Amino acid sequence: MSKVAVVYWSGTGNTEQMAAQVAEGVRNAGGEAVLLTAVEFGPDQLAEYDAVAFGCPSMGAEQLEEGEFEPMFTACEPELNGKKLGLFGSYGWGDGEWMRIWQARCADAGANLVAEGVICNDAPDAEAEAACRGLGAQLA
Question: Helix 126-139 and helix 14-28: axis angle, to 10°?
């Protein structure tokens, strides 16, 4: 059974809803999902998990949240080589550029991205929730 960390930051609750759906997808596929906020996770925990789903909304000028999530993710980046990853998050403006930049960072770090990042505009609808569960299943 795969053990998957679902690590997220959420300001409005949208990305938290997505994280719950990713975790459900992991469990539905027979894996063990552990939900953690960005402040509860760090690079020293990566080895404990077979895969990690990182979730963060687009903030500011299409960037990751800078107070908690970005510092945690930056600390994890050197340890992502070969790690099975998935990315997800919500946005309220723009075209998803933050996700493309984030995926490129993961690829540059040598991570094994299982799919394109799952994004949704504002609150996740049924399609976005299904995509999150699919992401979780792929990570499991």
Answer: 50
Question: Could you give the CA distance from residue 98 to residue 101 in angstroms, rounded to a whole number?
Answer: 5
Strand partners, 2: none
Highest CATH level, class, for 3-139 = alpha beta
- What is the pairing mode between strands 51-55 and 112-113? unpaired
Q: In the chain, what are the domain boundaries?
A: 3-139
Backbone phi, psi, residue 32, to 5°:
-105, 125
Cα(first)–Cα(last) distance of the chain, in Å?
Answer: 8
20-78 pLDDT, tens digit per residue, is 999 999 999 999 999 999 999 999 999 999 999 999 999 988 899 999 999 999 999 99
Cβ(42)–Cβ(12) below 8 Å: no
Does the global pTM surpass 0.85?
A: yes
| Cα–Cα distance for residue pair 139/3, rounded to 1 Å | 9
pLDDT of residue 73: 97
